[in-house]
Amino acid sequence: MEHPTLSQVATQVRRDIVRMVHGASSGHPGGSLGCADLLTLLYFEVMHLNSDEFDMNGTGEDLFFLSNGHISPVWYSVLARRGYFPVSELATFRKLNTRLQGHPATEEGLPGIRIASGSLGQGLSAAIGAAQSKTMNGESTWVFSLHGDGELQEGQIWEAAMYAPHHRVDNLISFVDCNGQQIDGSTDDVMNLGDLAGKWKAFGWHVLTCDGHDFEALRKAIAEAKSNRGSGRPTVILMKTEMGKGVDFMEGTHEWHGIAPNDAQLERALAQLTEGLTDY
Amino acid sequence: MVNSRYIQSLSPTEFKDTRSGFGAGLLLAGQANQDVVALCADLTGSLKMGAFKEAYPDRFFQVGIAEANMMSVAAGMTIGGKIPYTGTFANFSTGRVYDQIRQSIAYSEKNVKICASHAGLTLGEDGATHQILEDIGMMSMLPHMTVICTADFEQTRQATQAISKIQGPVYLRFGRPKVPVFMKADSPFEIGKAQVLTEGNDVTIVATGHLVWEALLASQALEARGTRAEVINVHTIKPLDGKTIVESARRTGCVVVAEEHQRTGGLGSMVAQLLAAQHPTPMAQVAVEDSFGESGTPAQLMEKYGLNAKCIEARVEEVMRFSATHLT
Lengths: 280, 328
Description:
The complex is a heterodimer of chains A (about 280) and B (about 325).
Chain A: H1 6-24, H2 29-34, H3 36-46, E1 63-66, H4 72-81, H5 123-136, E2 143-148, H6 155-166, E3 172-178, E4 181-182, E5 185-186, H7 187-191, H8 196-202, E6 206-211, H9 215-226, E7 235-240, H10 263-271
Parallel strand pairs in A: 1-2, 2-3, 3-7, 6-7
Antiparallel strand pairs in A: 4-5
Helix pairs in contact in A: 1-3, 1-4, 1-10, 3-4, 5-6
Chain B: E1 15-17, H1 18-32, E2 36-40, H2 50-55, E3 60-62, H3 67-77, E4 83-89, H4 90-93, H5 98-107, E5 113-117, H6 135-140, E6 146-149, H7 153-162, E7 170-173, E8 178-180, E9 195-198, E10 203-207, H8 211-224, E11 229-233, E12 236-238, H9 242-252, E13 255-262, H10 267-278, E14 283-288, H11 298-304, H12 309-326
């Protein structure tokens, strides 16, 4: 396929996710499926990247930080599909001696990963640091970060949220995966996040909301976020998503946060996801 | 015999805090390399970071009272080639932010220099909430981490400059009180290389941080009684210079390890492991005996918790007696 559409790539990424998690008999399919559209859009359209020769410093490139590291399957798939490493390596996910650790890590040298994540709440701070580094280096590139909505229960997120506008960080666009679910149930039941837009606004951020499965809506939000450069304030995009999106029996429930499908469930899932590129 | 390559005087006239050595070293590191940046969690004055802040305001980042954020922001800044130095008390540089250091800095092999002041009992009157005595252990357990604990002003300045030149995470530990300046400003300093400050064949005293000066005082008193102590300054606790320590233990046959830290997990634990594996040798520790500290002046606390020259002398005599009785 010469020029697959974004939808075709995203569907293939979803196939990769369920196959990887099934292959490892562990992993986090729900949030991964929910963020497949955003990561596909970022890596295949929005971000300026040099995927041929991975540079830890990312000089002259846009950077992406996955703060909710447990949705590593979607990131690994998108990185492989974008050419950071061989697609065949997706088969090693979570297996002994793999570069595709359960949660993203740099120790094994997987191209595309710049910092470990998994213990939640640290990625916003790291993204802010990288954004400040770019500003000090005189770059006009962008830093993107992604966070779970449940992750916002971590206090460090709000330390970072306070810090960024104070230091006039405005080359950062952060996404929150608002699927309303976490391990123990709905975010409303586990620890109500309240008025998220109001909270970010009160911390001094530009706040946008959009449908996380609508490429056009995401494009529009990102373009608007980019127009905030020069304001001295970063932008957060509260992105409404469906956990498990694309696989009907996984959609909209926390049950598929962190479990793997069995053989029959894998078949049911793959039947709903057309092979857009070629399976690994 | 005092090694004059390192020691300027055993009758020092100058007393300075090691944190001021950090402040001086940070300014010099910043002058030498424009990628050096500094972050501080509302303790700029205490950490003596003011000179750097004034010289390089665009490379100084006030973080406020938010140490977790500071550690992860520093980790992020390394992406792009910056060399961040974080500054806060040792307690807030380690225990409070262990998970951030573990994941974002150590596991991710980030070039962050964690600079920790007010370590140990000599923080004094603020009491046990602030007197961390577990930090050397916590930091040394982390893979990829280099751990340095300096003895005086000059050495802290040297170490602060030297860590900018090595790639990878570093924990640099220093303290609050004014202590004798006894190291030469130009003494050879190499990360990972212990310094034999006095030579002797009767006992080896391995010391780090503020206890190095106490070990030198002890060695003088011991010498007056005919005991020649070899004092080794282990400024780099990880990687430990096992070669120098074992070589000395082979000659002296007994070892005392002195540190301002819990007896478990610190330099004493590491030297015990080293000796057990390579050259089993009678050994005694001068360290805090599994307790928290309390309020008091630094000198009162070091006396009460057994961390001064007198205590080192007593342990030396015990271990030499043990060695003579059991190993003849």
